[in-house]
């Protein structure tokens, strides 16, 4: 293409960008008014079900080059900026900076939100419970390592609500200042990351070197960059953040390694038409109690998507996910039978990327 053609096309793009800017600013004027209404009514700023309805509507109208993922990426960023304009809100995540939980938080709250790195799951619940942060982001399960018990324990103890789920594909890298694999004498990472990369470590003889478990994979990169002879198993972002050269990408054993995160806050979502609900259930010791519970759900056509047993202070409880919202008639009906034995943790828009 000659330069004249390129200049003309760029002029067109400039004009479109000018229009877009004008329209987005007009949108933000309205968003500001929504914020004022909510400030008076006390309504929650973040409404995932409304955001989903907007994206669904735009997808159905769309006849251009954008696909759903592109529409979602654009509009989730616009919503994040809108929410920040309505009321700047802190998001507490399981740190440090660059951790997978940080990435999950950024995926939902965008680049403009303010983030607080917290070093424990309990600390995040405390931060939201004491209203220092409006939202908390915590891991709940990984496809290779199962449920995160600290998160279940805190969901059981605190009266906070799950208001959204985020599922991230998890990829690990091996990063080090060593030029040769044989020079690596020790590796830093989180215990579960070592487990998720077992095959890779054994294939390269790295199961023989010292493995030092620490609380976060990103911190592993920070340590390894300053210690000759060491390496880190960490996220790509973590290695970049600490200028640690990446030797191998995607070293996890399973290529569909995913982690599911919950966003917690102190309000409840309305129905979106595509919801999931999480509950904790304590069942009596009598034989058949679990079968009866599952049958009751089946009778009212509720699809259970997850059931995990978990021990809290010597008692067995079940963590259960099912399709539907807590205010759906069939859900209300079945849960009323177990009143006192069920803790509703939250109803939230179901993610397409499941684990
Ligand atoms: O509709 C609302 O309740 C809004 O606050 C507006 C808006 C938006 O930008 O469209 C922003 C934040 C909410 O999460 C949902 C939608």
Automatic annotation (TrEMBL):
GO MF, one example: prephenate dehydratase activity
Cellular compartment(s): Cytoplasm
A GO-annotated cellular component: cytoplasm
Catalytic activities: prephenate + H(+) = 3-phenylpyruvate + CO2 + H2O; chorismate = prephenate
Domain Prephenate dehydratase: 90-266
Entries under PROSITE patterns matching the protein: ACT (PS51671), CHORISMATE_MUT_2 (PS51168), PREPHENATE_DEHYDR_3 (PS51171)
Coiled coil ranges: none
Record's keyword terms, sorted: Amino-acid biosynthesis, Aromatic amino acid biosynthesis, Cytoplasm, Isomerase, Lyase, Multifunctional enzyme, Phenylalanine biosynthesis
GO biological process, one term: chorismate metabolic process
EC number annotated for this UniProt entry: 4.2.1.51, 5.4.99.5
Major subcellular location class: cytoplasm
Keyword Ligase: no
Domain ACT: 278-355
Chain positions of site Essential for prephenate dehydratase activity: 259
Chorismate mutase domain ranges (all copies): 1-90
Signal peptide start and end residues: none
Pathway terms, separated by semicolons: Amino-acid biosynthesis; L-phenylalanine biosynthesis; phenylpyruvate from prephenate: step 1/1; Metabolic intermediate biosynthesis; prephenate biosynthesis; prephenate from chorismate: step 1/1
UniProt superkingdom: Bacteria
Described purpose of this protein according to its UniProt entry: Catalyzes the Claisen rearrangement of chorismate to prephenate and the decarboxylation/dehydration of prephenate to phenylpyruvate.
Name this polypeptide is given: Bifunctional chorismate mutase/prephenate dehydratase
Biological source species: Poseidonibacter parvus
């Amino acid at each position: 293409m000659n330069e004249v053609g390129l200049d003309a096309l760029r002029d067109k793009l400039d004009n479109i960008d000018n229009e877009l800017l004008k329209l987005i600013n007009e949108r933000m004027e309205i968003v500001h008014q929504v914020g004022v209404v909510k400030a008076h009514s006390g309504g929650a700023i973040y409404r995932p079900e409304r955001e989903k309805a907007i994206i669904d509507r735009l997808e159905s109208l769309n006849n251009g080059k954008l696909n759903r993922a592109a529409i979602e990426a654009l509009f989730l960023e616009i919503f994040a900026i809108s929410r920040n304009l309505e009321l700047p809100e802190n998001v507490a995540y399981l740190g440090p900076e660059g951790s997978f939980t940080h990435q999950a938080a950024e995926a939902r709250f965008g680049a403009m939100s303010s983030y607080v790195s917290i070093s424990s799951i309990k600390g995040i619940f405390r931060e939201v419970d004491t209203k220092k942060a409006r939202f908390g982001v915590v891991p709940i399960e990984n496809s290779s390592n199962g449920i995160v018990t600290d998160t279940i324990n805190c969901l059981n103890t605190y009266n906070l609500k799950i208001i959204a789920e985020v599922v991230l594909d998890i990829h690990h890298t091996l990063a080090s200042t060593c030029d040769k694999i044989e020079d690596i004498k020790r590796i830093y990472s989180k215990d579960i990351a070592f487990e998720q990369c077992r095959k890779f470590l054994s294939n390269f003889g790295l199961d023989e070197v010292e493995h030092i478990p620490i609380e976060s994979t990103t911190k592993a990169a920070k340590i390894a960059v300053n210690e000759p002879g060491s390496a880190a198993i960490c996220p790509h972002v973590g290695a970049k953040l600490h200028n640690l050269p990446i030797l191998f990408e995607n070293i996890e054993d399973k290529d569909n390694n995913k982690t599911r995160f919950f966003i917690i806050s102190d309000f409840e979502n309305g129905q979106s038409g595509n919801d999931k609900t999480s509950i904790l259930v304590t069942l009596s010791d009598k034989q058949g109690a679990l079968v009866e519970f599952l049958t009751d759900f089946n009778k009212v056509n509720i699809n259970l998507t997850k059931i995990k047993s978990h021990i809290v202070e010597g008692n067995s409880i079940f963590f259960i996910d099912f399709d539907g919202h807590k205010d759906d008639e069939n859900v209300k009906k079945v849960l009323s039978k177990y009143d006192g034995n069920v803790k509703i943790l939250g109803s939230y828009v179901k993610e397409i990327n499941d684990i």
